[in-house]
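re: the backbone from monday

yeah here it is again, tokenized this time
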């Protein structure tokens, strides 16, 4: 069991079964405040079920046991009743799914949907204040003309815009933990990069921790600090992204890296796995547009705009080398 003191989320010996069929076994991990953790693994390895169990959203006939504690929530999330879970979902923990159309209400204006989650948890005192806060949030997720967009219905927005609305809903109550399950898979590459930037920026602003499920190792390398690798319903490896991706200990992780075509080195002998990582050093990718936008920059960071990290750990640009648009 790995438990960090002061963790936002502590999962211990989680198991998930569909009747007599074991789907997830002995999953234990912890996430610290504001920490960004990637959850990777092949299709069917149990990533989504692990996430859904934290929100009490497992499918019919699928049951979780073990323990999952979330900071600020008195009881255990595993085994909590619907009444308890509905107080937590959308407030202490939120989730962004791959397909926003299935998560948004098609017959409700998007501004009302953002306002609704604040009214539900009484984080805004009135509908008027919640609507004003919703417009601000739509602006923060960089939707054009947020006042007009607030009055739109989901079908009037593009896929990328709908996903921004989902992010606004998920972050409306400043959750301690945001879970993203393949949030950018359905988006084209440019929109995907903008969405990832927003997720990192807005979670960092709120000090929300992030559990990011993806098949895309490059996304993990650019977004996350730590990674958990699932295989056959278990976590087989975990650790610092740079360490796991450069020196995987488990043969499955090794295979995953090889299969992802990310283990190749570039012309400068650097791993493509972590675009732009320069351990202990700093060098700009040409044309990077993220200058001066690092949301996690601290006094310890060498102020190398567009990069996150510390001199000890090196710097990870969220953008592929030379990938400025
Ligand atoms: N309702 C269900 N009943 C029985 N088995 C299920 C159910 N839902 C999922 N499973 C099984 O549980 C396992 C884990 O599923 P899960 O969706 O968590 O995988 P995943 O790692 O998220 O995969 P993907 O990357 O494809 O989304 C799979 O073998 C899946 O077939």
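seq for it, each position gets an aa:
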């Amino acid at each position: 069991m790995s438990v960090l003191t002061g963790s936002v989320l502590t999962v211990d010996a989680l198991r998930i079964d569909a009747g007599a069929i074991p789907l997830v076994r002995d999953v234990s991990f912890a996430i610290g405040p504001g920490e960004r953790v990637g959850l990777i693994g092949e299709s069917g390895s149990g990533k989504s079920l692990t996430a859904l169990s934290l929100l009490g959203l497992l499918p019919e006939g699928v049951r979780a046991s073990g323990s999952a504690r979330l900071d600020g929530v008195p009881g255990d999330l595993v085994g909590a009743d619907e009444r308890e879970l509905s107080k937590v979902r959308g407030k202490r923990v939120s989730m962004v799914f791959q397909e926003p159309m299935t998560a948004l209400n098609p017959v409700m204006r998007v501004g009302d949907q953002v306002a609704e989650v604040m009214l539900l948890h009484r984080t805004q005192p009135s509908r008027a204040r919640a609507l004003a806060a919703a417009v601000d949030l739509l602006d923060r997720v960089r939707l054009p003309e947020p006042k007009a967009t607030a009055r739109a219905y989901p079908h009037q927005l593009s896929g990328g815009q709908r996903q921004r609305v989902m992010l606004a809903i998920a972050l409306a109550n400043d959750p301690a933990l945001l879970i993203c399950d393949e949030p950018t898979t359905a988006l084209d590459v440019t929109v995907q990069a903008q969405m990832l930037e927003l997720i990192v920026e807005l979670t960092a602003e709120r000090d929300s921790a992030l559990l990011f499920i993806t098949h895309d190792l490059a996304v993990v390398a650019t977004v996350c600090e730590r990674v958990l690798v699932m295989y056959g319903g278990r976590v087989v490896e975990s650790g610092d992204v740079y360490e796991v991706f450069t020196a995987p200990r488990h043969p499955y992780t090794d295979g995953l890296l090889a299969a992802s075509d990310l283990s190749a080195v570039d012309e400068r002998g650097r791993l493509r796995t972590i675009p732009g990582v320069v351990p202990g050093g700093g060098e700009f990718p040409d044309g990077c547009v993220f200058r001066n936008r690092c949301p996690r920059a601290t006094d310890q960071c060498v102020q190398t705009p567009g990069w996150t990290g510390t001199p000890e750990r090196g710097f990870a640009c969220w953008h592929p080398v030379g990938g400025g648009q």
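The chain has eleven helices and eleven strands. Residues 263-325 have pLDDT under 50 and may be disordered.
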